[in-house]
Specification:
Keywords: Membrane, Transmembrane, Transmembrane helix. By secondary structure, the protein is an all-alpha fold. It contains 14 helices and two strands, in the order αααααααβαααααααβ. It has a two-stranded antiparallel sheet. The longest helix is centred in the first third of the chain and has 25 residues. The termini are far apart.
Length: 285
């Protein structure tokens, strides 16, 4: 039986390995968008459970799979290297979270469930192999785009997501991937990880990340029918400033994780704008 200190250590390790900030942001935004689309309480709860456990499984599997690589480069900020949790423990936690994710996703129906599980599968594929290839961006584009599909299909009525909304989500995901990779370019390269950002280089990615985010913002502002409302212009301007700040910070402070945080800020603003245009992001086929 574990002591109280050991339990606290394990809990801290699980929280750190879950990549808590993006997990909370992605889960919260999915729940908010589901509510904005008119989903009832049960549906919102299932969306939250499915996305939350899916994100946990992705975070835990990432640190489990990367445990040996993190130890090689001395990543003491990682809970396995710091001795807070074992790789075996993270594997068990990731698989348990994945099982709950499968059940919650399919409880919303076959079509939305399948869309979400393919999205989660793409993220696992990134962790397992694709992060080290030129296709490292693809799981982010696919998974974030399918997340929008999942939330719309789970909402009431025979509706499908508008193409511009799916494209915006995919661009946000890809931009976040580029921004998130920048601080670890050298450590990743030292252990054989050469995704698309590693191949392009820091300077090119410092420009690419904000460009992708700005493209997403443009779609969110101009995609809905009719001329953009003042709130859309204001939100778009805020998101654009955050995107440009992410690029500038990435170039000025190579090891900073602020660009990823700023890209999450762009995503938050964009989802707020999507919620305000809920009637335009879900259309009758």
């Amino acid at each position: 039986m574990m002591s109280g200190k050991e339990v606290r250590r394990l809990a801290r390790g699980l929280v750190l390995a879950s990549h808590a900030a993006p997990t909370v942001v992605v889960t919260g935004l999915s729940a908010a968008l589901a509510a904005a689309l008119g989903s009832d309480g049960t549906t919102v709860a299932l969306v939250t459970a499915a996305v939350g456990t899916g994100q946990l499984s992705v975070g835990w599997s990432n640190d489990w799979i990367d445990a040996a690589r993190d130890a090689t480069v001395g990543r003491i900020d990682k809970p396995v290297v710091a001795g807070l949790v074992t790789a075996r423990g993270l594997r068990a936690a990731a698989l348990a979270a994945l099982a709950v994710c499968v059940a919650a996703s399919l409880a919303l129906g076959l079509a939305p469930g399948a869309a979400h599980l393919v999205a989660v599968g793409g993220a696992w594929a990134y962790n397992a192999r694709l992060k080290a290839t030129v296709w490292s961006w693809l799981p982010y584009a696919l998974s974030f785009g399918l997340l929008a599909v999942f939330v719309v299909l789970a909402a009431p009525g025979p509706r499908v997501p508008a193409g511009w909304a799916v494209a915006a989500a995919a661009l946000l995901g890809t931009g976040a991937h580029v921004a998130n990779t920048l601080p670890d370019l050298e450590d990743d390269a030292a252990t054989g990880v050469r995704g698309l950002p590693h191949r392009l280089g820091r300077r090119a990615c410092g420009v690419l990340a904000p460009c992708l985010l700005l493209a997403a913002v443009g779609l969110v502002v101009t995609g809905p029918g009719g001329p953009p409302a003042p709130a859309a212009w204001f939100g778009g301007a805020v998101a654009a400033c955050l995107a440009l700040a992410a690029g500038a910070t990435a170039l000025a402070r190579p090891r900073s994780r602020a660009p990823f945080g700023l890209s999450m800020g762009v995503a938050v603003v964009c989802v707020v704008l999507l919620a305000l245009a809920a009637s335009d992001i879900a259309v009758v086929p």
